[in-house]
Amino acid sequence: MKKKNRQNDMENTRKHVRGTNSLSYGKDNSVREWEKSRDYENYRFSTKELALYLMQGSFLALGINYLFYKSIWAAVVFLPIPVVYICWQRKRLAKERRKTLNFQFKDALNSMSVAVQAGYSVENAVSACVRDLRQLYDGNADILREFQYIDHQQHVSVPVEELFLDLGQRSNVEDIENFAEVFYVAKRTGGDMNQVIQKVARMLGDKIDVKKEIEATLAAKKSEQLIMSLMPAGIILYLRLTSPGFLDVLYGNPFGICAMTVCLGIYTGAYWMGRRIVDIEV
């Protein structure tokens, strides 16, 4: 029943927010672009990024064809590779954006915790947090814009706990979702907000510190994995350039095509497994 009530509250909040966006933010183009990109599950490419990744995907397709098949028919088969590459980059960048937002949220919670300890109400602590975040991040930082958004919306009578719930659901970041759930219950039941914010900020800070330690430990392993992944392609390229006729038996005939296809499959599988091994979630 409580979960259903929270869902109803969220739906009412979204309707309220949609009706007050123009009042709180105006018609600035940069704000409109940010509002379009508030879905953290789907990364929005800029024109420059899209052109860059399309070019990288095209070079990847040409490189695979040159190293493994050397055939115009294979080039036609590999035409979808740039599209697949762009989708993979979109997913990777969305994940990086959520991770960055998670790290930034730690600073925001610490700022709110200090403000609440100083005697501010939660609503005023959000406003104080916005001022602190302006000193820490540039104007395009997601965390700054999110807290500016929360600050604006709470001034047009949208409950701050529902705004945090909305942020948690949109961001799909576990730590933010957990904070939003605890914050919502504590605010609605009259809990000690000072203790809630302090405890969650401390726990979130410890978890993020562990994440950073793991990333620092794995940085060298990720570099090794990247080098090892490039080695097979590098060896084939070296042989193609230094001994052009050495690998001719593997091109333009059924046996060679089958052999190269098996090698490409093993190569792709090994690269995928290597990425999964060094990509540890905490």
Descriptive report:
With 282 residues, the chain is mostly helical. The chain has one domain. The protein is built from eleven helices and no strands. α9 packs antiparallel against α10. The longest helix is centred in the last third of the chain and has 50 residues. The protein starts with a helix and ends with a helix. The relative contact order is 0.09.
Summarize the amount of helix as a percent range: over 70%
> Measured on Cα atoms, how large is the radius of gyration?
25 Å
N- to C-terminal separation?
Answer: 31 Å
What's the total helix number? Answer: 11
- Sum up the overall morphology in one term: elongated
Structural class: mainly alpha
Let me know the average pLDDT: 83
Detail the poorly predicted runs: 13-28
Main sheet overview: none
Output the helix-strand order. HHHHHHHHHHH
Number of strands: 0
Q: How many distinct folded domains?
A: 1
β-strand amount:
under 5%
